[in-house]
Design goal:
Strand content: 5-15%
CATH class of the largest domain: Alpha Beta
Oligomer: single chain
CATH architecture of the largest domain: 3-Layer(aba) Sandwich
Structural class: alpha/beta
Radius of gyration: 23 Å
Order of helices and strands: HHHEHEHEHEHEEEEEHHEEEHEEHEH
Shape: flat
Number of domains: 2
CATH superfamily of the largest domain: Type I PLP-dependent aspartate aminotransferase-like (Major domain)
């Protein structure tokens, strides 16, 4: 057999292996877990993964190029720069704004970046890592959106950027934030890691900021295992992001390619001698944050399923919202931000202070019955041990952020949840409060 014939046979057997190794199972309440998140895949992903491995091209390659092109097309941006994680994507997006190539627009140590304290650490970490100063705003419940009424109060002469996450897939108030950054000539980064496919006024999130980020961790809307991307429209920002991702080099050749610019040995940059190899010329103090082609191969297969995944998340959210509606004397149920169509990552719930069960008691009741839960990430990052000595500013007392830290958690809506699983979740919530399911 030829190599190509062997490849075809291997990939066919791979699909057969998937069918045998991952058969569908009947859900048994309590015995089987109801996860908050998880990967949903079939023989397409496994076949692509093996196909990429047979190339033995162990860095970014043909699948990565396909994914970047198709993913940017889906979101509606001019480019998508693939990275090895969503956290790395956040690091690249913030660090890109420090590039000398931006001239007077660049961020420098001591500049301030407006954000929120209720979220995931790697939205905040790149601010600190670049010696910038985070300025924290409070949130609103039940949207878990930034409190935009204090934006002007947060402003100072050093304010240069805003970075916010679309919390659990619910878009933040883009009308207010866009007006604010335009008024004060600020950069905007959208952390869209939990919100792939969400829309605001009919436009997908990830297209409003100067840069945006997404994650492809197994918990997210689509997965590569590990993986992420930076999205944007401006060619200069694309070049800067890719430079920081690819060791900080000035060269923009793809791995394994040479002389894309046509003058590889004709540059003179910095204090290097004329003709120094452009492949080894560095314009930034960068990293190596590339993804592998095997990761991208899984993403290419996942991307075809993405519209269905998004719809299933919305359907599961709507089902839980309806099923728990009669428990609102105890629970604050989530609401979409106005003018948005969220792509829900989870179903957030805040416990009323008057509830007979506090957050920890209710979470234990659910977990004891194998219904998995998560808190709203770091709660209040200002209370976390790693951040107690962080240089920062806070606007207001962070009352709602502390309430989220103490009273909020979420359950899953991901596409792997079946109707029997969701029924069991609803029944268990009602049992916790001594009520029958409506």
């Amino acid at each position: 057999m030829t190599a190509e014939e062997l490849r075809t046979k291997i990939l066919a057997l791979t699909r057969e292996y998937y069918d045998v190794n991952w058969p569908s199972c009947t859900f048994e309440p309590v015995t089987n877990a109801v996860p908050v998140t998880g990967k949903v895949f079939d023989g397409d992903e496994l076949s692509n993964l093996v196909d990429a491995s047979l190339d033995f091209w162990l860095t970014t390659g043909r699948y990565a190029r396909v994914f970047e092109r198709e993913f940017a097309r889906f979101v509606g941006t001019r480019f998508a720069a693939l990275a090895n994680s969503g956290s790395s994507a956040n690091l690249l997006a913030v660090t890109a704004l420090t590039s000398p190539m931006l001239g007077d627009r660049r961020l420098v140590p001591g500049d301030e970046v407006i954000t929120v304290a209720a979220g995931f650490p790697t939205t905040i970490n790149p601010i600190i890592q670049n010696r910038l100063v985070p300025v924290f705003l409070d949130l609103d419940i039940p949207t878990y959106d930034v409190d935009v009424t204090h934006l002007e109060e947060a402003l100072s002469p050093r304010t240069r950027a805003v970075i916010l996450a679309h919390t659990l897939g619910n878009p933040f108030n883009l009308a207010a934030i866009k007006a604010f950054v335009a008024k004060h000539s600020l950069w905007l980064i959208e952390d869209s890691c939990d919100a792939l496919g969400a829309e605001y006024n009919g436009q997908k999130v990830g297209t409003f900021g100067n840069l945006a980020t997404v994650s492809f961790y197994p918990a997210h809307h689509i997965t590569m295992g590990e993986g992420g991307a930076v999205l944007g429209q401006e060619p200069l920002l694309k070049r800067i992001v890719e430079s920081f991702r690819d060791w900080g080099r000035d060269c923009w050749c793809d791995p394994g390619k040479d002389n894309t610019c046509g003058k590889r040995f004709n540059w003179q940059l910095g204090e290097l001698p004329h003709g120094y190899d452009h492949k080894y010329t560095y314009s930034h103090v960068g990293y190596n944050l590339k993804a592998t082609d095997m990761q991208a191969a899984v993403g290419v297969a996942q991307l075809k399923k993405l519209p269905g995944f998004i719809q299933q998340r919305r359907d599961n959210f709507a089902y839980l919202k309806s099923a728990l509606a009669d428990l609102q004397e105890f629970l604050v149920l989530p609401e979409p931000t106005p003018n948005s169509n969220p792509s829900w990552f989870g179903f957030p719930i805040t416990i009323h202070d008057s509830s007979p069960l506090n957050r920890n008691e209710l979470v234990k009741f659910l977990e004891d019955r194998n219904i998995k839960t998560r808190l709203l990430f770091g709660g209040n990052m200002l209370r976390q041990p790693a951040y107690l000595d962080m240089v920062h500013r806070s606007v207001g007392p962070m009352t709602t952020t502390d309430r989220i830290m103490n009273n909020t958690f979420w359950v899953g809506v991901y596409p792997g949840l079946t109707r029997p699983m969701l029924d069991f979740v609803a029944d268990t919530f009602h049992a916790a409060f001594g009520k029958k399911t409506a």
